[in-house]
Amino acid sequence: MIGGVLTVSSSDEMVERELLCSDPSAQRYRYLMDFLFIINEINRDPARLPNLTLGYHIYDSCGDPRKAARSVLQILSGTREPISYGATVPSLSDRVMFPYFFRMVQSEEEEYIALSKLLKYFGWNWVGIIQFSDSSASRDHQLLLKYLSREGVCAEFSIKLMEYSDENFKKNIERRNIIEKSSTSVVIICGDISSSTSDELGHIFDSIRKKTWIFSSKWLYQQDTMHFMNILLNGSLIFLPNRFNLSSHPKLRDFYDNFIPSKYPEDKLLEDIQMWQFSCLSKDEHKNDILETIYYHALYNCSGQEKLTDIPNYLNLYHSASLIHAVDIMSVALQDMGNFLSIQTNERIRNNHNYNYQ
């Protein structure tokens, strides 16, 4: 049994004491499809887990920490070693604190090492740094300064943009003036992407549009839900993990195209994707009412043949390779455990047999 916790939907305010999961991301739903695809491929391979069928439990955290923690605890009740396909927090590399945690992506720290070397290679030794007020920005900022100094790269300015409000408006104007008067042509962005951070960048866009922006790879994770970021990101430099080549899994595209509502009418998350992405009516009148009355989203009758691959950005390959490899490695570990137990069992039987007949 393999468990997975993915963030497909967004969490909304509590409705009647229940968490409302809404606006599912098609790009992140693809990771669930990748999960199902590799599970099916493993079960079809007679050499993998012979005489066994690999099962799974998948949970949508809806981006809510409470729901995510509850889902993880449910999974850990039957699975000991978690493998992450997207966690990049540097502290997770601490083998003392997290001895049984594994991941398929490099730490953010590795990314800043590479970034610092890239700056040195191009002779960009005079840069500006913008950080936000989110929890990760300070950590990212400290890591960045650490590795910039190692490569002899200096920061002309390092400013923190505050969330837009009347109180912070004057402070952000002052910070924008600092950027406009700076001589550097390269600006590095620290922190996670969110609607507030993108708004903050939008307010200073005119000040730095002639400069080269550098973003970390995590900014791509919300690309499908923040279309207006494309304007801000245009012409910038961004780090990207290795992309997954569809040609290495020719069955994958067919798997996506055949996962349609008419074949999987009981898949409620797929139904939500169809409602949000194709404006399809659901059989659930309550869900229809919520989407039409709360989110003002007009719905219509659909054919049930709508393909996921017709959704813009669905084929964005950001985490697919890491997720598929994570599930694949977990299945190999289960296979090795099964082989080991089989050897141990046979050894005990042989020893008992020898003992009985000595």
TrEMBL record:
What does the UniProt keyword field contain? Glycoprotein, Membrane, Receptor, Transmembrane, Transmembrane helix
User: Is Cell division among the key words of this record?
Assistant: no
How does this chain sit within the bilayer? Multi-pass membrane protein
Return the protein name.
Receptor ligand binding region domain-containing protein
Domain of life, per lineage: Eukaryota
Q: Receptor ligand binding region domain spans which residues?
A: 83-338
Q: Recorded GO terms, molecular function?
A: G protein-coupled receptor activity
Compartments it resides in = Membrane
Organism listed in the record? Xenopus tropicalis
Q: Which residues form the signal peptide?
A: none
Gene Ontology CC:
membrane
